[in-house]
Recover the amino acids of this structure.
DNA sequence: ACATGACTTGCGAAACTCTTCATCTCAAGT
DNA sequence: ACTTGAGATGAAGAGTTTCGCAAGTCATGT
């Protein structure tokens, strides 16, 4: 099949590795959005938004269709929601470990308090 | 709280956006590995491996402890497995859509064939 | 036909990432 | 004390990404 699996996977994650692209996917996983709607909710230049949409389109994570004057984007692969959720989970876990660590540092002599 | 959530999320995904780092996490999610064990299974230069481990360590996804001569790495956040799994899922979905597309192109006049 | 709003595309400068090389630390063996 | 194997770290060059600007397309209203 050519491309090693782990490389394809790395590329998928790299695609998600940009704040604007994350926001786009989160908004689209709620409902379809026209570009100008995304533009209202994400504060970047139109051309920048368009570039990021292009990246997501090329990796087939989203699709676009023109509806009159506007171009409407949708999530192409529903499983993206799971991925975003798993990301949120990890971030939460990481934050929890951080605060546990600082609590331990603060009350260093306490034995697994309360 | 400073850093916007979507930015933290982007950074998390960016961390996973590298083939060597993906392989490391997949190996570690099976079991702990010493650096020289990882080195046998992933073919990159030792110093490169060390750099990638450094990246994972800095984002707190893995932890290391020295065991005599060797340094052993472990997954710090078990939820990483879910994230990798979700990635695999999406890749599968994407591949399925690709092959469905080419099938449709091949038998263009067939109506949702066989 | 022309203007307008909604997007997209090409381009270049700045910022960032990857990989390798040389150097360094740490622990165990002699 | 010296050597050796196992890793980490810093720095430099190549390569890739990102962002804003200017210019371009496409459909709708006048």
């Amino acid at each position: 099949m050519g491309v090693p699996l782990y490389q394809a996977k790395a590329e998928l994650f790299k695609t998600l590795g940009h704040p604007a692209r994350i926001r786009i996917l989160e908004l689209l996983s709620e409902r379809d959005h026209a570009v100008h709607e995304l533009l209202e909710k994400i504060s970047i230049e139109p051309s920048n938004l368009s570039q990021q949409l292009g990246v997501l389109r090329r990796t087939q994570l989203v699709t676009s269709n023109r509806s009159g004057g506007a171009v409407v984007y949708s999530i192409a692969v529903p499983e993206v929601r799971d991925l975003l959720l798993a990301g949120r989970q990890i971030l939460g876990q990481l934050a929890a470990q951080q605060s546990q660590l600082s609590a331990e540092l603060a009350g260093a002599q306490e034995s697994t308090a309360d």
